[in-house]
Amino acid sequence: AEELDADWAQMRAEHAPADAALYKNLAFGMQGTGGSTAMANSYEQMRKAGAAARAMLVSAAAKDWGVPEAEITVAKGAIAHAGSGRSSSFGAFAAAAAKLPVPTDVKLKDPVQFTLIGTDVPKLDSAAKSSGTAQFTMDASRPGMLTCLIARPDRFGGKLKSVDDIAARKVPGVVDVRVIPQGVAVYAKGFYAASQGREALKVTWDDSAAETRSTDTLIAEFQILAATPGKAVTTKGDVGGVFAKVPGQIVEAEYVFPYLAHAPMEPLDCLIEANEDGAQVWAGSQMQTLDQTVTAQILGLRPEEVKITTLFAGGSFGRRATPVGDMVAAAAEAVKAIDRTAPVKVIWTREDDIRGGYYRPLYVHRMRASLDTAGDIAAWEHTIVGQSLIAGTPFEAMMMKDGIDPTTVEGADDLPYGLANMSVSVHTPKVGVPVLWWRSVGHTHTAYSTETFLDELLALGGKDPVAGRLALMGDTHPRHAGVLKAVAEMADWGGPVPEGRARGVAVHRSFNSYVAEIAEVSKGADGAPRVHKVWCAVDCGVAVNPNVIAAQMEGGIGFGLGHALYAAITLKDGRVAESNFDTYRSLRINEMPQVEVRIVKSAEPPTGVGEPGVPPIAPAVANAWAKLTGTRVRRLPFVNA
């Protein structure tokens, strides 16, 4: 719209069909969204497209009017020629412009010419989402559609041994029961009948190859690994020599981070209608290329014979971006099992998703530092233990580096602090629990361990948390320093704090965006932290839509805070204990803190904001809590600590 000089009221948006040749994400090499890449990938692409279209419209108008192109102006969706008094809408010349060659080299606007970029234009989807007219997969329906629920093993890696479906088939509305690779599929003329039919199944599972360990067992095994250095990721200076020789204090800490579910408000769902010639998929897909490929493989089709209608997703946070396309795979198998005789919508209940989904991995971190007699950090040692997110997936070949999963260590191996002696290593144990990227991925745990441990070291060294961080950054990390200074100014760091409250700070870069947050915390009636206010400063390059950036920071803070305070997936003999929001606790509306966001002005290319608001919130709260109570929380969630 900016480069077209369009009127914002003229703009519409629709989801692209599945076609990687036209719509691939340049960061992935396939069509999909994730990793906070959308803006970084699309900013220049869309501007060039708009500028090219504008040039073609101007050329078509100039030819029709018989005037030089240089004399034509475009503003707010109108093409005009002052000399002749002519003006027109884009539509009048669209057909003629479309026949012209697309310019290969177009001049983009100087940012000082922007009229839309950097302003709070209304989001195009807000009205539909507010009125209830926006279409989610749960809303999708087809004539003759069957609703399908799947009985899955209650342990990861379990296999079907036997099933008695006699009672299930007698449930009114149930039309069929079939065995598919994911479990036992119950087909019905509605959700209630499908759920009752599934409940009536008598299923025996074979757990001989299943994961049967409990969370406590896994943590104990991870702790043993964490006690020894793992595969080297980063090595600077002489860490071992400093620990052996430098007089001062050695500080050690161990952090435990639980499995976490994505728990989107709309659980997973997928609708597929298929025949021998092709298939149509309706889903809130994050990775259209993967979903298209998986569906084609299962149904014996060519990828181009699978059409995907991408609908709004009621939350995802990475859950709808599995490398194996589990959401569409289950629906494709369900359609295949009944010989494609009817459209099938597979629905996960929230219990299905929380108990049988993909999780943010369990991690154990072991930190060790040496403080010299002046209270300065002389050496820093960090060992991380956790499952790989990409091992055994299509992303392994392109992302794995020297046997190290970068998502495990991101945010720990590139600290902005001047640590002359530093080592980071990793252990990657194999566990039968399926894992997946979760909003802000590795930064969810590395930001917490590094920023709380650093805060502890600064306190032991008698240094202010903000000034101490800035001193360690020096002049080499101006964007980290910029957001940290901004948030300190916003919160009047060092000024008076209400009685019974304390403030903590954290700063972190993720997905090439820089975020610093200060949290004001008191002790709640339940003994857990009560977060009253969060100040947030973000540097994400050019701020395309400031209102969206602020909204993403607010949402990320709420998402990260709720999980840090309350959430954990725990295994009992390999079975997930949690099932819904009563046991997998989320942040409630009355617990959402006031959030103040400042966008640090930048001329750098725009970067993502969907995830970077998450990592700093938990360590900021933990650092405030330590100041308030003297207790360092090293095992999340806070309520369990």
Textual characterization of the structure:
With 641 residues, the chain is α+β, with helices and mostly antiparallel strands. Helices cover 30% and strands 23% of the residues. The strands form 6 sheets. The chain has a 7-stranded mixed sheet with strand order 6-7-4-14-11-12-13, sandwiched between helices. Helix 9 links the parallel strand 12 (278-283) and strand 13 (306-310). Helix 9 packs parallel to helix 10 (326-337), helix 14 (443-460) packs parallel to helix 18 and helix 15 (465-473) runs antiparallel to helix 16. The protein starts with 19 loop residues before the first helix and ends in a 12-residue tail after the last helix.
- The fraction of residues assigned to DSSP E strands is 15-25%
Determine the oligomeric state from the structure: single chain
Q: Which percent bin holds the helix content?
A: 25-40%
- The total of helices stands at 18
In total, how many beta strands?
Answer: 23
- Radius of gyration, Cα only, in angstroms? 27 Å
- On the 0 to 100 scale, the average pLDDT is 96
Strand order of the largest sheet: 6-7-4-14-11-12-13
Largest sheet: 7 strands, mixed
Unreliable residue runs = none
Outline type: globular
Distance between the termini: 50 Å
Look at the helices and sheets and give the structural class.
Answer: alpha+beta
